[in-house]
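User: My collaborator and I are trying to settle a disagreement about how two of our proteins should look. Neither of us wants to argue from intuition anymore, so we agreed to look at predicted structures for both before our next call. Could you fold the first one, then the second, and keep them clearly separated?

Assistant: That sounds like a sensible way to settle it. I'll keep them separate. The first protein:
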Amino acid sequence: MGILFTIFTFTAAVLLLIIITFLYLTFQIYSGKSIKNPNYPPVNGTIFSQIFYFNRLYDYQTEDAKKQKTFRLLAPGQSDLYTTDIRNIEHVLKTNFDNYTKGKYNQDIVIDLFGNGIFAVDGDKWRQQRKLASFEFSKRVLRDFSCSVFRRNASKLVRVISEMAIGDQIFDMQDTLMRCTLDSIFKVGFGVELNCLEGSSKEGTEFMKAFDDSNALVYWRYVDPLWKLKRYFNIGSEASLKKNIKIIDAFVTNLIRTKRKLLAEERLCDDKEDILSRFLVESKKDPEEMNDKYLRDIILNFMIAGKDTSANTLSWFFYMLCKNPVIQEKVAQEVRDVTRSQDDVVNVEEFTANITDTGLEQMHYLHAALTETLRLYPAVPLDGRCAEVDDILPDGFRMKKGDGLYYMAYAMGRMPYIWGEDAEDFRPERWLNNGVFQPESPFKFIAFHAGPRICLGKDFAYRQMKIVATALLRFFRFKLADDTRKITYRTMFTLHIDGGPRICLGKDFAYRQMKISAAVLLGSFIFKLADEKKPVNYRTMINLHVDGGLHVYAIHRHSTLLITSVMRLSNVFLEKQRLAESQYLYGSVGKQIHVCSRNWH
């Protein structure tokens, strides 16, 4: 009886606590909000009502925005205004910048993940990080170093995708791109070779998953009225978040300590190219303030900016190219034209190494297609500020001190009054004037933010995306594995594709691979069966293998030398046999041909 009474008492106490919390929140939500006052935006519900359509949150906001450019959702102690009005956005992000901050409400929600990083703070902390980051991003050495890393990882990406495609695998494009950009950001940002793309870093893969899951779990707090209670009792989503944060902190702490040790041993701090090394040098000036916790926050903020922006955008970009094959071919043709690789097959590493800034700047259609992707699928679909004083917006609506104002980048890209009646169509040409890219106002195209807090890494992100896209579209054509599957997003701070786009390369890829292999081998050798009397049979299995392999003699076309040893064709390494004209290949026949040509017909 005692145990049952204890359980009953505990359950009753928890239920009472939930009821009290609910009543308190209800009072906080509806009191003093001037609900029927026409001087304030119309009320479309409460922030907690969003829980019912959380999985399609940005589309729901788009539907509301098409009815009202500015509307309100009620929250405890404040109102949250949502707007697509360009005038309001410029007012908040530029004209009246000092009167709008991240605010305590937002900081309380994100602090466990982002801490005191640049995206979560205001005032002097923001200015200090912004100044240092701006100084680093402006340096030529970082630009040159990052480009070399992007090119090298783009080459690896081509090889990895080739290996998957050779086996006729359907692969998750987003996961593959995430691994690629994670490797790039770790090398450029922290000077570490993670090798997540090639699957050799278990810790890196675990970190990436924990970081992405934490991103979604923290975002859930915006619609969960009980998240603080759950955090206190360490249950539900908050227990999962705590577990993921532990993985993240352990990984980043180890990274910082290892980096400090390496820099101390090398005594080359001032010559280091990666950003973390430079922040570590700066931390010596104020070790108490710029401690390991501070550096941890900087790293994670840099991570979400560097990894998610590029990988998410590229994922949506290739998805849209699959849905619009004519546009895919236009981008690919521009790549061939600018890189002058129209009629020849080239070595992947050589091709990526020769991708230049000048060449990238000439790819206006590629730039337009990436920008059009960001218009419809912005990396950060929703962002906002908190009013520090009472204010009147340009559209005439009032705001009270403490109210939040959120600008809806995802919804803005779909507003006919901003982009025309074809706003929801994927049309890169809207960004071109006589074939030359024409930018729009950052308050209209808000994907990279605007005003004093505009994204410092905008050019950095475009450069990475264009290098990756150039390499992939030079060698592959992409298709959706299942055209009927509905693609949607995962609701979090950044716009991930839920489950990733499932991609295949189609029969064209296989034919190209076979043609390249046959051309190289037959261009160098004459083949004869080792035993013409021996019957050649297949092995009964899913794939039609030659039972026991194909045993041949190989006679070099350019030599009288007869290769008399009997060998299995699958053990002839092309890398050792190739001639000067076949330097676009690497790998082996028995393994996989790692490169295919889009132009081998």
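The second protein, kept apart from the first:
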Amino acid sequence: MICFDEGRLLAYLDGQLSPRESREVGAHLAACPRCRDVLAGLAAAREEVGRLLSPYHSAALNLPVPRPPAWPRAAYAGAPKTGKGVVSWTENKKNPPATPKKPPKSSSK
């Protein structure tokens, strides 16, 4: 008789096997006391872990859902204005405003 590994027995315990595989493992468990003991140990370990984690699990369910920070929305909202200001500033650097020329001094004496 070829026994199943613990991974297959755990998948059987979780109900993750196909119906055909589940029937095969069930038939094997009916005839193999060693695999039944391994399966019982896996089930007991699962129950113990569930018992130990249940206070943390229920406490986590009562925590408020965190809201995403507001700064990305504000940054995206201000981005077009910032971009327009940068373009305007660089255009002014390329083409500075004309400075008025001083009128020539008249030499009337």
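Some points you might bring to the call about the second protein. The first helix runs from residue 6 to 14. The radius of gyration is 39 Å.
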